[in-house]
Amino acid sequence: MTQINLFDRAELHTKYLTKFQRQLLEKQLKIETTTEYRQRIEIMLLADEGKTQTQICRLLSCSPLTARHWILMAKSGQAHTWQAQPIGRPKTVTSDYLNRLKQLVATSPRELGYPFSRWTGQWLSKHLCQEFNIGVSARHINRLIGEIGVDNQSERVEIEPQQQVRSHHLVIADLYDRHTHSE
Question: What are the residues facing 120 on neighbouring strands?
């Protein structure tokens, strides 16, 4: 990636960012070491200077989709969220994660200091997120339990019932009272 010197310009007329946002981004650009985060900041600063998406893509060798996204963030006043969105694909469940899930299912939550005696998918999800820093929904945890075949220990796990589809009888009637409706 080419280094862009954004600091040599005298009093720029900003297009999207407040003076505070611009100063914050420029300060972060000086200390940020991650290439992808630097790119996000540079895109917003260049867009604020009035550069087009095409110009930004050429200068930074980035994809039009990336440039468009971070230009939009600058336009919408969300420049401060440049670190909020993780870089890359979300973390996936590993074999270590699955092995730990099996261990947890086989033990009582009380052994780990919880005040309840049965695991739920929600609590397994929270506990594993603390250990592995991988966020998985309770529903997916329940799916994984089924996949790893923890049938003989299922009395320890209280799997949340999925929403049941109930049949409702619907009666369509005249919405207007015939006596008050005038034509």
Answer: 158
Contact between 92 and 110 (Cβ < 8 Å): no
- Is residue 2 assigned to a domain? no
CB distance 83 to 37 below 8 Å: yes
Mark 51-83 as b/e (b = at least 16 C-beta within 10 Å). bebeebbebbebeeebbeebbebbeeeebeebe
Which phi and psi angles does 9 have, rounded to 5°? -90, 135
Question: How far apart are the C-alpha atoms of 19 and 77, rounded to whole Å?
Answer: 12
* End position of a domain, from candidates 81, 103, 124: 81
Q: For the chain, how many structural domains are there in total?
A: 2
The CA–CA distances, whole Å, from 52 to 44, 143, 177 equal 11, 46, 61
Which residues span the domain enclosing 121?
Answer: 95-158
Instruction: Supply the pTM of this predicted model.
Output: 0.48
Return the percentage of the chain with pLDDT > 70, whole number. Answer: 72
Using the predicted structure, report yes or no on whether residue 39 has a pLDDT greater than 90.
Answer: yes
